[in-house]
Design a protein that fits this description.
Layout (H helix, E strand, L loop, with lengths): L1 H5 L5 E2 L1 E3 L2 E3 L5 E6 L4 E7 L3 H18 L4 H17 L1 H12 L3 H19 L1 H4 L4 E6 L2 E9 L2 E5 L7 H12 L3 E5 L6 H12 L7 E3 L4 H8 L4 E7 L2 H13 L3 E5 L4 E5 L5 H13 L9 E7 L3 H12 L20 H16 L3 E4 L19 E4 L6 H4 L6 E7 L2 H9 L3 E2 L1 E5 L3 H10 L4 E4 L15 E2 L2 E2 L6 H7 L1 E9 L19
Parallel strand pairs: 1-5, 8-9, 8-11, 9-10, 11-12, 13-14, 13-19, 14-17, 16-17, 19-20
Antiparallel strand pairs: 2-3, 4-5, 6-7, 7-23, 12-22, 15-16, 18-21
Helix pairs in contact: 3-5, 3-8, 4-5, 4-8, 5-7, 11-12
C-alpha cells in the first residue's frame, strides 16, 4: 500500500474518489520537500467537475452506508486501526517527506490520530439514544441520533495524518459519508490514510479525498449537498469558512489560530518547567496551534528561569536528517520561513532582546537548501509589539516579565486568542484560581500542551474557534449527528371513551 502512494512521487498527484486514484486536468501545484526544496510531485487541483464527482459518489454511498448496522461499521474501524498501526512507519515516512517532521514527531502524530479511531470504535455505546416509558398516560418517548449525510473536512498542513483522523473516522462511524480536502502542501500521507481505509473494508464512496487550493474549497462549500464542514487552520480563513457555511445554512466547526501563554510562578520547578516549555515551544518547529509561544514569568524567578531556558535551548539540534538525533525539522515553505524571520527582525526593531537567534543556522551549509530556522528566544517583549499580536507559527518563544500573579493573569485574559494556556506552579490555590479565571478552551497545570484525549473534545475560545461543538470526542459525535425524537401512543382497540384533545401531552 505504501508503495502505491510512493509511485505517485514525481508524477501528477490527484484525488481519491470511490476507492480509486483519479487525476483531472485542474491547475497544477508544485509540491516541494521542505528539507531540501526538491520537487516531490505535481498536484492536480480539483476542478468543479471533479468536486461534483466526489460529492455524487459520497451522496450515492450514503444511501446504503447509513443503514449499515453499527456493529459492522465498527468492525471496519477495528480493521482500520490495525492497518494504521501496521503501517505507522510508512505513514511517518511520507509525513517526513512532505512536511519535514523528525521521525518520532511524525509517529506521535499518527498515534494521537489512532486514539480517535479507537474512540470511534466504541460508537455502539456512545451513540445510544434515550428512552422514557409513560412520559404521559400510555405515551412513550425516545431519541435517536441520525447521520447528517455528506460531510466535509478541510485540514491544515501541519498535521496531515492526525487532524484528518480527528474528523473522518467518527463521522463515518456515525453513518455519514466524508469528503476530505487536505492541505495542498503535503497530500501524500493523507492519501495513504484513505487507501488503508479502503483496504480495511470501507465501501467505495464513503471516504473521498479531493486535493486542491481555495477554488476547490469554494466548489465544495457551494454544493448544497454538503451538510456539515469541519475546518482547522488560521483564524482569518476559519472566519471566512464559518461565514460561508453559515450563509449556506451548513453546520460548521472552524478551529483557528492561537497565541498560547504559560504563566511561570516563583515556586515553579525551574529545571522541569524549562524543559517542558522548550518542548512545547519548539516541537514540530513551532508549527502547531497548541505550540507554546509566550512565557509570562512572575517576579524574582526570571533570572534563573532565563538562564536555564537558554542553557537547555542551546542543546537543541536542527538539521537535514529527519531522525531523532535532531530536535525538529524545517518550516513548510520558503515563504513561511521569510514570514517568521520578519517577525524576529521586527521584534528587534521594536526593542525586544534576542537571547537565542535561530537565524544563525541560516549561515550553515545544512540549511542552504532547506527551510531551516533554529530555536529563537525573544526577551523583554511587550504586548504592544507587532510580533506579540500575531501568531508566528514557528520555533519562536517570546518572554514577558510581570511583577505578580494578577498582572500575568490579566495579560493572558486580554489576548484575543483563547486556544490553550498553562500555569507552572507548586501552589494548588494559584492553579485553581488560574483555571477558573482564564477564558481559554484548553488549560494545562504543569503541562504545556494540554491537548485533550480522544475521550474529551478539542477546541478553543474567542478568535480560536467559531461554532458550537468542538472537534472529536463527545462533541464530535454530536456534531456529525442530529437528534430525532419520537413520541408514541398505541390506543386500546376497545377504548370507547377517546376524545378530541386540543392540548399538548402532559405527565398526567
Amino acid at each position: 500500500m505504501f508503495h502505491n502512494i510512493m509511485s505517485e512521487i514525481n508524477k501528477f498527484i490527484g484525488h481519491y474518489i470511490s476507492g480509486k486514484h483519479y487525476v483531472d486536468n485542474g491547475e497544477k501545484i508544485d509540491i516541494f520537500n521542505p528539507c531540501n526544496n526538491e520537487l516531490i510531485g505535481i498536484l492536480s487541483s480539483a476542478t468543479e467537475k471533479t468536486v461534483k464527482k466526489a460529492v455524487d459518489e459520497a451522496e450515492k454511498a450514503f444511501k446504503s452506508w447509513k443503514n449499515i448496522p453499527v456493529s459492522k461499521r465498527v468492525s471496519i474501524l477495528f480493521n482500520y486501526k490495525n492497518l494504521l498501526e501496521k503501517n505507522i512507519d510508512g505513514i511517518a515516512k511520507l509525513i517526513s517527506s512532505d512536511l519535514g517532521k523528525v521521525d518520532e514527531d511524525a509517529k506521535a502524530e499518527i498515534r494521537r490520530g489512532i486514539e480517535n479511531v479507537e474512540y470511534a470504535c466504541g460508537l455502539g455505546e456512545t451513540i445510544k439514544g434515550e428512552y422514557n416509558k409513560n412520559i404521559s398516560t400510555s405515551i412513550d418517548s425516545w431519541s435517536e441520533f441520525e447521520p447528517l449525510g455528506v460531510v466535509l473536512g478541510i485540514t491544515p498542513f501541519n498535521f496531515p495524518a492526525m487532524v484528518p483522523l480527528w474528523m473522518f473516522p467518527l463521522a463515518i462511524a456515525a453513518g455519514n459519508t466524508f469528503i476530505l480536502k487536505p492541505s495542498e502542501k503535503d497530500p501524500l500521507s493523507t492519501l495513504l490514510l484513505a487507501e488503508l481505509f479502503t483496504k480495511a473494508g470501507l465501501p467505495d464512496g464513503v471516504l473521498n479525498v479531493v486535493n486542491g487550493d481555495k477554488s476547490s474549497v469554494e466548489y465544495l462549500l457551494n454544493d448544497s449537498r454538503i451538510k456539515a464542514v469541519s475546518f482547522v487552520g488560521s483564524t482569518p480563513v476559519a472566519k471566512e469558512i464559518y461565514n460561508m457555511a453559515s450563509k449556506n445554512r451548513v453546520r460548521c466547526q472552524a478551529l483557528g489560530g492561537a497565541k498560547n501563554h504559560a504563566l511561570i510562578l516563583p515556586d515553579a520547578n525551574i529545571e522541569d518547567s524549562t524543559k517542558q516549555i522548550i518542548g512545547a515551544a519548539f516541537g514540530s518547529s513551532g508549527q502547531r496551534c497548541m505550540a507554546l509561544s509566550v512565557a509570562v514569568v512572575v517576579g524574582e524567578i526570571k533570572d534563573n528561569f532565563i538562564k536555564e531556558l537558554v542553557k537547555q535551548t542551546k542543546k537543541l539540534k536542527v538539521g537535514l536528517d529527519i531522525n531523532d538525533s535532531n530536535s525538529f525539522g524545517p518550516l513548510i515553505t520558503k515563504e513561511h520561513l521569510e514570514k517568521v524571520k520578519y517577525f524576529i527582525d521586527l521584534s528587534e526593531e521594536e526593542g525586544a532582546k534576542i537571547l537565542t537567534d535561530g537565524r544563525d543556522i541560516l549561515k550553515s551549509k545544512n540549511s542552504v537548501k532547506g527551510n531551516y530556522l533554529g530555536a529563537t528566544i525573544i526577551d523583554e517583549v511587550k504586548t504592544s509589539m507587532t510580533a506579540y499580536k500575531n501568531e508566528i507559527f514557528g520555533p519562536v518563544l517570546q518572554i514577558i516579565h510581570v511583577n505578580n500573579f494578577i498582572e500575568g493573569l490579566e495579560i493572558i485574559k486580554n489576548n484575543n486568542f483563547g486556544n490553550g494556556c498553562a500555569i507552572f506552579t507548586g501552589n494548588g490555590e494559584a492553579a485553581r484560581t488560574f483555571t477558573s479565571e482564564v477564558d481559554i478552551g484548553m488549560i494545562g497545570v504543569n503541562i504545556p500542551l494540554p491537548v485533550p484525549s480522544a475521550f474529551h473534545s478539542f477546541g478553543g475560545w474567542k478568535d480560536s474557534f467559531f461554532g458550537d461543538l468542538n472537534i472529536y470526542g463527545p462533541d464530535g459525535l454530536r456534531f456529525y449527528t442530529q437528534r430525532k425524537t419520537i413520541t408514541q401512543r398505541w390506543p386500546s382497540s376497545n377504548n370507547q371513551n377517546s376524545k378530541i384533545n386540543f392540548s399538548m401531552p402532559t405527565n398526567n
